[in-house]
């Protein structure tokens, strides 16, 4: 395997960053793929074109033909591995820099005024108002110095600075400081990784206001829980409402007052403030996208990427091989298969049903009273474990599907792999949550006519407070579990474990390893680090987290707070991993974060729709509004609980489905209640859907349409009000263009002046030589004339 990377460590003092010899290491080991070249040439088959030694020799010869200098390390201390140092001379670096259109700072320095914040703008406004009162006072404003840059050219090498003192920066020390160190990472790892840390830093900063608002919404729910009339009616000790059994046979009738704790807990997340928070988070997502575009433009300007264009992407070797073999077929393209996730969710549903029935059969009254909480928590933990396992499986499946498609270029391969991985992992993480939010409790039926799975498992019902509380439990366990286990423990533990395995495979004892480690070169020690696998896993973690923060935020307003706490740790862990746990990747330039921005915009758009349906169909916000303004006799919420409950005659149970313990409450039950909008058994159309159901459904659909359009309109207004390019950056770019044009004009005038001076000098030389010739001829003529006169 050939790994190309820049020299380890920082630049030597007093040298230009491009003038140091760049060491590009090729690591090769025995017994690998034919393209992996061995360290020692075989004696018997080295001349064969298909042998690894011949290919390596040919590859090294082509490197020398390009002007690179190769140096083999004969003193390697790692058995079975050899190293080749590739030095790039300064002339080759200049040539490549010119081809890549790298920009270097010119000698001349221009001072460009920049606004640093709101306070300076206010100060500038005050100074303009007070300017007539102090006409002779000079303004002393700080000026930021900006080095203008232009495409590097060897012809203008004399314009570049020659004595640049480069400070040695230790990245590990910078990572320990609570500062934005993405500029340091950009210098060491390149613009592509620098953009990732810049994006992660801005995302974490934007989570601060979202977290504050989410905490306020949660505290509002805590403060108003004692004043919530529906919860008070459920928890009232004189409430004698008898509810129908929650399962067949083993479950019995129960009092509505036993659901007091669930009803009070549901109010913490199901209150009018959650509607405001959903709108706020939709606008927050739009503002985050706009702020990132502005930050990206500023970084492009500061990192000299304004004129950067992606190089032409060459075809991948696998694509060329398949074309040569004429085996590229469209039949190999496969669709995304996510049936495994739905099968797992279905299995968890069966687990919940059977576990609930088993716990209801328990003789312990405490166990029976906590059936709902036990089933909800254990099912959420099972879902979390399955999600963590399938995440790794889906990553391999996405790569396998992408390899089957044989994309033409590396960029196309990366984009397709990212899209497939995101789709699979998104459904893996959110399928259980989507089921609880939109399907659980809606495909149940009614007492006497329930829906069954496999003719024996009755579909689950939501608690009286709705499924929002269970949705919150599932969302919190999944989000916190993924962040704590997958994002933090795995992120640090797996590289260390792989590093330990490499040490064990090196067949060195503990003492020998310690002694050998003292004598290893930097690149030899880095061989034991984990190879860099790209930024896809890092972005994927944050995009899934962004989905948790925005998609179901109406049911879990504390999600931004937990995301903020996780990201504060995540930034440090990522920085430490890049510096100490991974091999230094090849520096790559990039102007943006690529396809991830489009995925973010898609998630933000989908979040508006999902939150509209969560508020409308999952929570009781719409039924409460309909009752208060259409059916309440006094315009209050008194009587809302009784309004949402329908009546059922227990004699209408199907044969074999009635409860085995009808006298558990101490008295016979003739009428039980269940949550639904249906006609009573004594009406002319018993158990049919009532008019209240259609009224609530109409208002729900109207709310979804209005909410979606209003929020998206507000998001578009935010997008329109906030310009993509900061004003000071656009002004500086414009000034730079003017100054560069002036610089070029002066340079052209200097060239013209030099040409004119050279032309005039040549003309004078010609004139002087002509005058000398004329004077010589005149003397000759005068001599002839004198001689002729004397002869006379």
**Distance linking N and C termini:** 103 Å
Largest sheet: number of strands, sense, barrel closure: 3 strands, antiparallel
Strand content: 5-15%
Q: What do the pLDDT scores average to?
A: 73
Number of helices: 24
Report the radius of gyration as a whole number of Å: 38 Å
Compute the number of structural domains: 3
Query: Can you count the beta strands?
Result: 15
Q: State the helical fraction.
A: 55-70%
Strand order of the largest sheet: 1-3-2
Can you offer a commentary on this structure?
One of its GO terms (molecular function) is protein dimerization activity. Belongs to the anoctamin family. Residues 53-162 form the Anoctamin dimerisation domain. By secondary structure, the chain is mostly helical. The chain has three domains: 1-102 and 151-168, no CATH class; 110-146, no CATH class; 188-309 and 336-630 and 694-721, no CATH class. Helix content is 58%, strand content 7%. The chain is built from 24 helices and 15 strands. The chain has helices spanning 52-65, 90-100, 118-130, 171-176, 182-189, 191-224, 229-235, 260-269, 272-302, 317-325, 339-360, 365-369, 371-405, 410-438, 468-505, 510-519, 522-526, 536-550, 559-581, 595-618, 621-631, 640-643, 691-721, 727-791, and strands at residues 24-29, 69-73, 81-87, 103-105, 110-112, 144-146, 149-151, 242-243, 254-255, 445-446, 449-450, 452-453, 457-458, 645-649, 671-675. A three-stranded antiparallel sheet has the order 1-3-2, with helices on one face. A two-stranded antiparallel ribbon has the order 4-7. The protein has a two-stranded antiparallel sheet with strand order 5-6. Strand 12 and strand 13 form a beta hairpin. It is elongated and about 130 Å long. The protein starts with 23 loop residues before the first strand and ends with a helix. Mean pLDDT is 73; it is low at 1-43, 106-110, 135-146, 161-170, 327-338, 348-369 and 784-792.
């Amino acid at each position: 395997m050939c790994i190309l990377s820049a020299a380890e460590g920082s630049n030597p003092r007093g040298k230009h960053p491009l003038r140091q010899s760049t060491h590009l290491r090729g690591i090769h080991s025995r017994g690998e793929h034919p393209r992996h070249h061995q360290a020692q040439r075989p004696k018997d088959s080295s001349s064969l074109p298909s042998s690894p030694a011949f290919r390596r020799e040919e590859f090294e010869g082509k490197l020398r033909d390009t002007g690179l200098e190769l140096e083999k390390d004969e003193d390697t201390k790692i058995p079975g591995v050899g190293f080749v140092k590739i030095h790039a001379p300064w002339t080759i670096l200049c040539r490549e820099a010119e081809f890549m259109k790298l920009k270097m700072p010119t000698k001349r320095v221009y001072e460009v005024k920049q606004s640093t914040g709101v306070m300076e703008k206010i100060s500038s406004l005050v100074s303009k108002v007070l300017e007539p009162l102090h006409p002779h006072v000079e303004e002393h404003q700080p000026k930021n110095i900006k080095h203008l840059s232009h495409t590097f050219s060897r012809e203008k090498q004399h314009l570049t600075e020659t004595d640049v003192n480069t400070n040695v920066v230790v990245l590990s020390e910078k990572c320990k400081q609570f500062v934005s160190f993405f500029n340091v990472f950009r210098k060491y790892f390149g613009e592509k990784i620098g953009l990732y840390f810049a994006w992660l830093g801005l995302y974490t900063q934007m989570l601060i206001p979202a977290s504050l608002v989410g905490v306020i919404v949660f505290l509002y729910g805590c403060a108003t829980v004692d004043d919530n009339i529906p919860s008070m009616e459920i928890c009232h000790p004189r409430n004698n409402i008898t509810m129908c059994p929650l399962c067949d046979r083993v479950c019995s009738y129960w009092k509505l007052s036993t659901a007091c704790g669930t009803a009070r807990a549901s109010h913490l997340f199901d209150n009018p403030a959650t509607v405001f928070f959903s709108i706020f988070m939709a606008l927050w997502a739009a503002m985050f996208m706009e702020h990132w575009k502005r930050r990206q433009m500023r970084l492009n300007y500061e990192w000299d990427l304004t004129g950067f264009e992606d190089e032409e992407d060459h075809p991948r070797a696998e694509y060329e091989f398949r074309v040569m073999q004429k085996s590229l077929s469209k039949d190999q393209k496969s669709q995304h298969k996510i049936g495994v996730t739905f099968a797992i969710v279905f299995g968890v549903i069966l687990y919940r049903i059977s576990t609930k029935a088993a716990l209801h059969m328990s003789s312990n009254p405490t166990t029976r009273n906590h059936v709902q909480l036990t089933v909800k928590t254990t099912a959420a933990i099972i879902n979390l474990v399955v999600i963590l396992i399938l995440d790794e499986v889906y990553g391999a499946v996405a790569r396998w599907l992408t390899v089957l498609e044989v994309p033409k270029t590396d960029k196309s391969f990366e984009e397709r792999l990212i899209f497939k991985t995101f789709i699979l992992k998104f459904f893996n993480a959110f399928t259980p949550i989507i089921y609880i939010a939109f399907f659980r409790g809606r495909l149940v039926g009614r007492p006497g006519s329930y829906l069954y799975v496999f003719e024996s498992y009755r579909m689950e019902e939501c608690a009286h407070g709705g499924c929002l509380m269970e949705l919150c439990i599932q969302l919190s366990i999944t989000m916190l579990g993924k962040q704590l286990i997958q994002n933090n423990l795995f992120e640090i533990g797996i590289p260390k474990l792989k590093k330990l395995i490499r040490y064990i495979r090196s067949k060195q004892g503990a003492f020998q390893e310690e002694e050998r480690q003292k004598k290893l070169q930097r690149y030899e020690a880095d061989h034991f680090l984990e190879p860099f696998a790209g930024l896809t896993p890092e972005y994927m973690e944050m995009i899934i987290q962004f989905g948790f923060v925005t998609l179901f935020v109406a049911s879990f307003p504390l999600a931004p707070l937990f995301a903020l706490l996780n990201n504060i740790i995540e930034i440090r862990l990522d920085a430490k991993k890049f510096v100490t746990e991974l091999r230094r990747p090849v520096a790559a330039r990039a102007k943006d974060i690529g396809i991830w921005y489009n995925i973010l915009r898609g998630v933000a758009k989908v979040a508006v729709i999902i939150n509209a349906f969560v508020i409308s169909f999952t929570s009781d916000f719409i039924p409460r509004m309909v009752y208060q303004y259409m059916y309440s006799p006094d315009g209050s919420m008194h009587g809302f609980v009784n309004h949402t409950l329908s009546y059922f005659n227990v004699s209408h149970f199907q044969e074999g489905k009635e409860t085995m313990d009808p006298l558990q409450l101490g008295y016979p039950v003739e009428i039980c209640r269940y949550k639904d909008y249906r006609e009573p058994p004594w009406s002319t159309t018993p158990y049919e859907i009532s008019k209240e159901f259609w009224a609530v459904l109409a208002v729900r659909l109207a709310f979804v349409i209005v909410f979606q359009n209003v929020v998206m309109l507000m998001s578009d207004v935010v997008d329109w009000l906030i310009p993509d390019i900061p004003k000071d950056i656009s002004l500086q770019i414009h000034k730079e263009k003017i100054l560069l044009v002036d610089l070029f004009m002066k340079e052209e005038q200097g060239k013209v002046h030099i040409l004119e001076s050279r032309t005039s000098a040549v003309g004078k030389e010609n004139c002087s030589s002509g005058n000398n010739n004329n004077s010589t001829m005149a003397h000759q003529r005068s001599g002839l004339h004198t001689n002729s006169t004397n002869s006379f």
